[in-house]
Amino acid sequence: MDDMTSLRGKAVVITGGFTGIGRATARLLVTDGAKVLIFGIEQKDLQPALDDIRAAAANGGEAHAFLGDVGKPDDVDRAFREADATLGGVDVLVNNAAIARARLLDDDYRAWQRMVEVNLLGYLACARAAADRMRPKRDGHIVNVGSMSADLRETGQDVYVATKAAIQAFSETLRKKVNEEGIRVTLIEPGAVATPIQGKTREQYRERLEKMEMLEAEDVAAAIHFSLTQPKRSNVVMVQVRPLKQLI
Asked: Model-level pTM?
């Protein structure tokens, strides 16, 4: 359709962009000409991610990187000022950075706090920074990558589930507010994905991938791309992407 939203020249910030879903999303968006700033915490992952994404760029697509922690307000502020300087603003935010290893009965307060700082407060801070740049234009798109854990509520994932349930509720209430100002909000909820968040290698995931019990990061990136490229009159509110044979 002629009225599909073009990503060419769009300024995109992706948190958790050095690995997994964030990196796969950046790689896909730059093929459509988006200008992307990936925001991540691990120095060792920065250059490999940047090289990978830049190799995929087409139609004027660009890739830049910012080393920082979404759980720290000063880093979020500096990342978005970097987006202003390098991308000329922010048209799209993909809130994706998350950690998975903190459990109520096995870990202490500081571990729970750290998960809340990254998985929830980081999303809030980045959404606020992006919305501040989108509202004057009355245009923009915020994508929150949540998890089907918000509904499945697996045993032993209590703190993680709590943060993802919060993202589910936050996405809905934010959408109801900013849709009035021309800003779209989409919640993407994947099932099991073969990414580094669980601290495992690709070899450890291989059997589940072959059995179609896990998704690839690129599967989630495709759902994000679909949501971003719909006509402006259309807001894809939520997408759940489950592996074909995931049993829970």
From this structure: 0.95
